[in-house]
Amino acid sequence: MNPRFYFLLAFAAVLAATTANAQPVLDIDGDIIFGGSYYVLPVIRGQGGGVTLSGRGDQPCPLDIVQESSEVDEGIPVKFSNWRSRVGFVPESESLNIETDIAATVCVQSTYWWIDATWRVTAGPKPEGFGEDSSPKFQRPSGDASMLGYLWMKTAFVVWL
Fold first, then answer.
1. Across the beta sheet with 51-56, what order do the strands follow?
2. What is the value of pTM for the model shown?
3. Which residues form the signal peptide (predicted)?
4. What's the maximum distance between 2 C-alpha atoms anywhere in the chain?
5. Contact predicate 56/66, CB 8 Å
6. Digit-coded pLDDT (tens) for 146-157
7. I need a labelling partner for 5 at 20 to 30 A (CA). Which of 89, 105, 148, 149 fits?
């Protein structure tokens, strides 16, 4: 037999095993979440709106990730990227980057999510230094979604995360 055939067979088996282990994040209808923009909303109605960018106090910069006070305001959508398994969907229990999906801000900074020294979620530069899998990353523990208290929503789709 051709050695290339065995190599391709082994490669396909490894790829299938890697993809099979990654559990996808599902929307409220049970559909798999793929790349795209999503809104972050509280699970319980009446607890405020989605997430947005805001300065601290009277200062317009730096920008923090905050929750809208009105439940009718969905806020600004976010995008997920750079999960390690490289599957086509957003996987559960993997570190990933989160970026606010907005064209421009008042501050000259990107809108990737960071956790600062005071544990505030703030906007900052694109993670660099270790390639596309560099920190900071956010990880969603697997298990009961009701414990987490937020929905990821893509326009008309709601996602438990």
1. 51-56, 59-67, 121-124, 112-115, 97-100, 78-81, 37-42, 150-154, 157-160
2. 0.61
3. 1-22
4. 72
5. no
6. 433 444 443 333
7. 89
